[in-house]
Amino acid sequence: MKIPAWWIGIELLRAGLAQAEEGGATPPPSPSVVAVPSATPEGPLSEDDRRKLRMEFRSALRSAERAFDHQERSALREFQTSQSAEAKQWKEKERLARRKYFEKHPTGPEQRKYVLGFVERKKEFDASQVFRLQSERKSWRDKREAHREKLKERLNRFVKELESGKRPPRELWENLQF
Questions:
Q1: Alpha carbons 33 and 43: distance in angstroms, whole number
Q2: Is residue 17 in a domain?
Q3: Residue at 157 is within a domain
Q4: What does the pLDDT profile of the chain (178 residues) look like in tens digits?
């Protein structure tokens, strides 16, 4: 009879816990992904270490910038989708209102007046859609500038720390995302 893999995992976990309770070796901690460099001994940094740290930090900054770009694109795509849905609802509402109006007012001059009003309402609606999209883009542009400034400040501080021969503080590596 074949033993399921999940059962083997449970048995290994139990065995590790039993060893830990008996004072035996504790199981190694599970690996985790962290965007900070591996711990190295304190002291003066060699030129090679500085170069590697600088490259690694710039790579982390590029990743943060790409993450921000993705977040921006997703938000704008979602905003445009919501605007599209709103436009469909508006058109459907106007279509129903137009039919109801045309049933009550069958003559041409009355209908012409309604159509002219519709054209004006449509222009206003389209202008409001454009304005909202422009303001959303401007908001993201402002957020992008603020994010870039924060990243530039971190990079400058990081480089200053390296130039002084010190290992840059861990806080510069943390929370690079927007």
A1: 25
A2: no
A3: yes
A4: 556 554 555 565 565 545 555 555 444 444 433 444 544 556 677 888 888 988 999 999 999 999 999 999 999 999 999 999 999 999 999 999 999 999 999 888 999 999 999 999 999 999 999 999 999 999 999 999 999 999 999 999 999 988 888 888 888 887 776 5
166, 51 in Cβ contact below 8 A? no
What Rg do the C-alpha atoms of the chain give, in angstroms? 31
Give the domain range for residue 83: 45-172
0.85 surpassed by pTM: no
Q: Please tell me the total count of domains within the chain.
A: 1
- The token pair at 145 is 């500038």
Q: For 5-71, give the DSSP string.
A: HHHHHHHHHHHHHHHHHTT-PPPPPPP---SSPPP--SSPPPHHHHHHHHHHHHHHHHHHHHHHHHH
Residue 23 within a domain:
no
